[in-house]
Design a protein that fits this description.
single chain; 407 residues; alpha+beta; SH3 type barrels; PX Domain; Substrate Binding Domain Of Dnak, Chain:A, Domain 2; 3 domains; 5-stranded antiparallel β-sheet; 3-stranded antiparallel β-sheet; 11 helices; membrane; SH3 domain; Sorting nexin 9; phosphatidylinositol binding
């Protein structure tokens, strides 16, 4: 398997395969030559693409042939108990059935709790966007919460283990209230949860020893901690910059523009020839543009980082489970020497620890492939919008400059 690091667009008629950064592909033939490899994507399509676009990965989850997606739309205010209790209900439409189902926030919260209970020991299940009580029926809040619920559901749909689980499929595809309620009861009674989930993992690879498992744990622990620090720093700096762009900075630009305009008005009062250019110079200001800009680019960067803050917050607990397993395997040597357990018991413990390690590697590889795709996409958008913003400012400045002649 290989991880796609860069986008590659196939040319028609050349037996090429289009891939996106973050995709995982199965390498079929590396001997094609000329810097090309033949591979198969998760949809089962095969073709050629540049080997410069890929990097080696280890174990990965088994991805479905048809990726799942869903759309959250049409929020409506509903009520119960003869209007005593009001809530917002959303329409959720999965790509598999194209048949909408209705859910309110507490249903999403129920789904999150079930997923966390079932998969929290081996998968990163980020928390939902916060529930707000005051102002929860205001249009802007409804829109923002729907966007964040959409982002959360999209991320869950993209996870090959979560998306194929019974509880997630129930949430997306129940046919009526009876099926929804019986499915909920069944999910709440599910006993294969938490660390028990490792017993269902069957890695197709050689068994790892305790030292290899421990090394992987430390490697992932360092990376997730460092990325968490970086994400938090960017969020702090980004929010501070947003406040400046929507607060003091536009006011400063407006003050500068006003000072230029006042001076140009004085110049104009002289009625002396050649004053027009100076009036043009007084019209240049960027306050309004600066105030509107964060919504076009910084907003998406901060939203992506907020998502990853939630994802990264899950890893310390996940990694702690694996570190505890490593310590038990280490302790097994002493117990064998003391005659408290057999060598066969120790081998079983090492086998389980190895299986858990492959699960962690698969989850980290899924995380990395999504990270590469998400940050590549959001940074492209951010920089494109920044270029457009400064280009507009530069065009205005060039227009004003053209009014001045060299004396």
């Amino acid at each position: 398997l290989a991880l796609v690091l860069y986008d590659f667009t196939a040319e028609p008629g050349n037996n090429e395969l289009s891939v996106r950064a973050g995709d995982t592909v199965a390498v079929i033939d590396q001997s094609v030559g000329g810097g090309w490899i033949e591979a198969q994507n998760s949809s089962g399509h095969t073709g050629l693409f540049s080997c410069m676009s890929t990097g080696e990965v280890g174990p990965v989850w088994l991805y479905p042939t048809s990726p799942l997606d869903c759309v959250i739309a049409d929020p409506k205010k509903e009520s119960k108990l003869y209007g005593l209790k009001s809530f917002i209900e959303y329409q959720v439409t999965p790509s598999t059935t194209n048949r909408p189902v209705n859910h309110r926030y507490k249903h999403f919260d129920w789904l999150y709790e079930r997923l966390l209970e079932k998969f929290g020991s081996l998968l990163s299940i980020p928390s939902l966007p916060d529930k707000q009580v005051t102002g929860r029926f205001e249009e802007d809040f409804i829109r923002m919460r729907m966007e964040r619920l959409q982002a959360w559901m999209t991320r869950m749909c993209r996870h090959p283990v979560v998306s194929q689980s019974d509880v997630f499929q129930l949430f997306l595809t129940y046919k009526d209230e009876k099926e929804w309620k019986s499915g909920k009861r069944k999910a709440e009674k599910d006993e294969t949860v938490g660390p028990m989930m490792f017993s269902l993992v069957e890695p197709e690879a050689a068994e790892l020893d305790a030292a290899q498992v421990e090394q992987r744990c430390e490697q992932y622990s360092r990376f997730t901690k460092s990325m968490d620090d970086g994400v938090r720093e960017l969020l702090n700096v980004g929010h501070t910059h947003w406040k400046r762009c929507t607060g003091p900075l536009p006011k400063e630009y407006e003050r500068i523009g006003r000072a230029f305009r006042n001076l140009s008005t004085v110049f104009s009062s002289s009625k002396y020839p050649g004053e027009e250019a100076k009036r043009q110079g007084g019209k240049i200001q960027g306050g309004k543009e600066t105030k509107r800009q964060p919504q076009k680019d910084l907003y998406f960067l901060l939203e992506t980082n907020s998502e990853y803050k939630g994802l990264l917050g899950c890893f310390p607990e996940i990694i702690a489970v694996h570190k505890a397993a490593v310590e038990k395997v280490k302790e097994a040597d002493r117990l064998v020497s003391a005659g408290k357990i057999s060598s066969s018991d120790k081998r079983s413990m090492n086998q389980r620890s190895s299986c858990m390690s492959y699960s962690l590697q698969a989850e980290m590889n899924h995380f990395h492939s999504n990270r590469i795709y998400d940050y590549n996409r959001v940074m492209q958008l951010y920089l494109e919008q920044q270029v457009t913003f400064y280009q507009q400012i530069a065009d205005k400045l060039r227009g004003a400059l053209s009014q001045f002649t060299t004396l």
